[in-house]
């Protein structure tokens, strides 16, 4: 079997409880998940189940209580340098222009300013923001800010792309445009992607494989579905494909109960 780009092996994450001293909460328990080079994998699960926790472990931003992460076969220690991470919220620096936000990672890595700027302009064009280099985050729409974040994530050409509900704050049309753009970029580069979403339609439309997580506590994968719908795909059109409808039903059968459990837990909390 070829070496996985990213492999989470028997990950458990236990946090000290913020509410009651001395108590702990095991968000994730014995979760294993691996992504092949070039594979697009989505993880879906009920709200609060531990999706971001798993992604943070894969990014090397959170050390698991037990288990290990391998990146192209090497045990991960510290931050995952082969990965680019696109966060759920707004992560642009308000005092920097679009261009300067996009080039920040290159600057920090010591790339000469002229080269960084050239690559930055090129990436801004690729995400449809040519001509908006000098806009500051507050002068951009939500979609433009997300495009800037996408360029910021991809400019370092990471081998692994980690995305945490990157488009959840966008309106449906902008969201579909951006999903198609991400697919187009991914088709050209074929990097390993771990994509977190609570939106099953988005997961199926984008992915090679969809992994379903159980409701927390002690979240772990409970189902895995290969998405055998031909590419290239248009995320809006693919939804009417009979295979899409079939897969949606099969995955929802597994996910539905977990969503209900997650919802009941949130109401109790
Ligand atoms: N640093 C922390 N300390 C304590 N508890 C935490 C910490 N990080 C996460 N948790 C808890 O772990 C659980 C999983 O959180 P996580 O953010 O991974 O869920 P999620 O599935 O990404 O949520 P959402 O769908 O709302 O984005 C939650 O109950 C959360 O409160």
Automatic annotation (TrEMBL):
PANTHER family in the record: ALIPHATIC SULFONATES IMPORT ATP-BINDING PROTEIN SSUB, TAURINE IMPORT ATP-BINDING PROTEIN-RELATED
Residue span, ABC transporter domain: 6-240
Similarity-based family: Belongs to the ABC transporter superfamily.
**GO MF term list:** ATP binding; ATP hydrolysis activity
Q: Does the keyword Transmembrane helix apply?
A: no
Q: Which InterPro entries does the UniProt record give?
A: AAA+_ATPase, ABC_transporter-like_ATP-bd, ABC_transporter_ATP-bind, P-loop_NTPase
Keywords associated with the record: ATP-binding, Cell membrane, Membrane, Nucleotide-binding, Transport
**PROSITE patterns per record:** ABC_TRANSPORTER_2
**What is the name of this protein?**
ABC transporter ATP-binding protein
């Amino acid at each position: 079997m070829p070496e996985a780009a990213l492999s989470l092996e028997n990950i458990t994450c236990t946090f000290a409880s913020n509410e009651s001293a001395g108590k702990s909460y095991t968000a994730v328990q014995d979760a294993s998940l691996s992504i092949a080079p070039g594979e697009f994998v989505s993880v879906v699960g009920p709200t609060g189940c531990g999706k971001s926790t798993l992604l943070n472990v894969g990014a090397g931003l959170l050390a698991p209580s037990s288990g290990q992460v391998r990146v192209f076969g090497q045990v991960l220690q510290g931050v995952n340098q082969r990965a680019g991470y696109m966060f759920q919220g707004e992560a642009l620096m308000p005092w920097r222009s679009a261009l300067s936000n996009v080039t920040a990672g290159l600057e920090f890595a010591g790339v000469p300013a002229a080269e960084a700027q050239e690559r930055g302009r090129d990436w801004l064009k690729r995400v449809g923001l040519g001509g908006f280099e000098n806009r500051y985050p507050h002068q951009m729409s939500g979609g433009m800010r997300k495009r800037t974040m996408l360029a910021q994530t991809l400019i370092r050409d990471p081998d692994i792309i980690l995305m945490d509900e990157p488009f959840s704050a966008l309106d449906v049309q902008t969201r579909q445009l951006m999903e198609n753009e991400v697919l187009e970029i991914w088709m050209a580069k074929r990097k390993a992607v771990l994509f977190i979403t609570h939106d099953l339609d988005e997961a199926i439309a984008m992915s090679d494989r969809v992994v379903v997580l159980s409701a927390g506590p002690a979240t772990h994968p409970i189902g895995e579905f290969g998405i055998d719908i031909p590419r290239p795909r248009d995320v809006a059109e693919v939804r009417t494909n009979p295979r899409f409808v079939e897969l949606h039903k099969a995955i929802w059968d597994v996910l539905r109960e977990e969503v209900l459990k997650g919802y009941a837990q949130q109401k109790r909390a």
